[in-house]
Recover the amino acids of this structure.
């Protein structure tokens, strides 16, 4: 019976596309999410994600592909927020918070000014992986390849800059450039993940798989692989559950990831407590 | 020819941090195979002085030359061990990953390290006697062990000049002795500059002591024996007593509040 359900499930075109999108997104979120977690730039990533809505709104208004608008807006907010962060302004937090809100406000304004505006806004906020088109899949694949190529090409540099900026600088690495490049990759990943879970929930999918894997393995590239696999499990199981129960897919994927994160963290906490009390 | 040129030259260097004069009229030549100990009370410009050699801090006026180049051009030939590590200990990487960072810029592989890179890393880990822990997570080591790993990372860069900021802090006495013996051995080939508040210990190894307290005074320790060491040691005690004079002064030598 389960088999037949999965057969039905897989035979549907939109489901195949959704699964493929989840798979491609998991690669990006596993790799880049690992950097976000170890470099502790979750808030910066959140700023980038919400800045994206501005680009989507403008794209809507001028009637070009919202995904392209999202990519451009994500890259622009990555560079702006990156520069704010590099300059180490004392109120970096506030500045990023402001950019975060401004991006959203711009998006909402432009979407409201667009004649015949429809409920697509909600699918950008909360994601609708079931609506992914073949064109979207192509763009996501290209972004994935771009991310993969740059991470392989700059692996040593990213690691050095994340771990010890000062030493990286002495070794001749252009630290600011490398950091901005990393944030641009975060931006690309965010755009991909928006297709899957929407920009409100993006941060969870970006960080949770890497955070969970980080409990168990202790080298950067191993976390990347583990987080990618976890991402695939979360998106696929989230899709199946949401399909079966007829509930929103994005929220289901995030709930599964979030609950897994809390359970693993709690288990590890309890195990170490027990070990300590025995020792 | 390289041996004739001074490795580091400071010419009339001044530096202020937020109106506070940190370095004033610094003039010093550090020559090939010098082993210079920079001493002085806390907050009196030791780290600033070292970072200036690395080009991480630019002087307000005056010139710094390293190996005949600007500090930024020369910095790849400098091995550096900072006083503190910014990164937090949960960072997921092993001891060997940390030391391998010292090999960045040596080979053109993007992802992998060359055979020679790995050999140099093994050698550096042997030097600080950390090879048996190379597959441990860096953040799980003790403070002293982490320091040794960072020293290995600096050695892996095959430096012509080695700069260490308070390297013996958090290293216990027994290891400290070995550590200075290691530096002495390295000093046969390369120039070394270390900062320390541990003058008594340092003075038996270094061949120059630079007393830094806004201005710099250099004493050779080459021919130091008994009484002179004592004098030098007294000197350090005097400097500890001068701790308050670390505060910025105006031109009349009066303390600012």
């Amino acid at each position: 019976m389960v088999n037949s359900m999965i057969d039905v499930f897989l035979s549907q075109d939109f489901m195949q596309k959704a699964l493929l999108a989840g798979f491609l997104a998991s690669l990006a979120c596993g790799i880049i999410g690992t950097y976000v977690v170890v470099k502790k730039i979750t808030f910066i990533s959140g700023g980038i994600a919400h800045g994206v809505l501005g680009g989507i709104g403008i794209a809507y208004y001028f009637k070009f592909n919202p995904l392209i608008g999202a990519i451009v807006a994500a890259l622009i907010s990555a560079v702006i927020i990156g520069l704010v962060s590099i300059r180490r302004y004392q109120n970096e937090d506030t500045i990023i918070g402001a950019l975060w809100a401004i991006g959203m406000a711009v998006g909402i304004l432009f979407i409201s000014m667009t004649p015949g505006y429809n409920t697509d806004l909600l699918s950008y906020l909360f994601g609708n992986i079931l609506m992914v088109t073949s064109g979207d899949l192509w763009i996501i694949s290209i972004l994935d390849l771009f991310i993969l190529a740059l991470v392989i090409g700059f692996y040593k540099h990213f690691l050095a800059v994340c771990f010890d900026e000062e030493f990286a600088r002495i070794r001749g690495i252009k630290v600011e450039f490398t950091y901005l490049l990393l944030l641009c990759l975060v931006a690309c990943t965010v755009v991909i993940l928006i297709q899957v879970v929407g920009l409100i929930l993006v941060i969870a999918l970006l960080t949770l798989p890497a955070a969970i894997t980080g409990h168990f393995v202790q080298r950067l590239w191993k976390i990347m692989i583990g987080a990618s696999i976890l991402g695939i499990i979360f998106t696929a199981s989230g899709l199946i559950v949401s399909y079966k129960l007829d509930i929103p897919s994005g929220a289901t994927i995030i709930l599964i990831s979030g609950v897994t994160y809390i359970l693993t963290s709690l288990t590890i906490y309890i195990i170490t407590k027990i070990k300590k009390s025995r020792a | 020819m390289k041996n004739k040129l001074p490795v580091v030259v400071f010419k009339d260097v001044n530096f202020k941090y937020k109106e506070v004069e940190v370095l004033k009229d610094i003039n010093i030549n550090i020559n090939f195979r010098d082993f210079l100990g920079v001493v002085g009370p806390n907050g009196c410009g030791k780290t600033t002085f070292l970072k200036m050699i690395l080009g991480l801090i630019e002087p307000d006026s005056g010139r710094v030359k390293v190996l005949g180049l600007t500090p930024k051009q020369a910095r790849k030939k400098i091995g550096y061990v900072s006083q503190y590590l910014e990164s937090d200990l949960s960072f997921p990487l092993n001891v060997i990953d940390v030391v391998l960072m010292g090999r960045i810029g040596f080979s053109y592989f993007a992802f992998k390290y060359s055979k020679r890179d790995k050999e140099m890393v093994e050698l550096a880990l042997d030097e600080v006697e950390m090879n048996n822990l190379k597959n441990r997570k860096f953040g799980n080591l003790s403070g002293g062990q982490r320091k040794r790993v960072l020293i290995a990372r600096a050695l892996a860069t095959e430096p012509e000049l080695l700069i260490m900021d308070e390297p013996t802090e958090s290293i216990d006495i027994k290891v400290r002795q070995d550590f200075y013996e290691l530096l002495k051995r390295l000093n046969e080939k390369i120039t070394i500059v270390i900062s320390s508040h541990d003058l008594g210990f340092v003075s038996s190894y270094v061949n120059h002591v630079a007393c830094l307290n806004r201005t710099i005074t250099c004493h050779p320790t080459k021919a130091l024996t008994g009484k002179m060491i004592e004098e030098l040691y007294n000197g350090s005690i005097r400097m500890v007593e001068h701790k308050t004079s670390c505060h910025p002064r105006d031109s009349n030598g009066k303390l600012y509040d």
Summary: DSSP finds eight helices and nine strands in chain B.
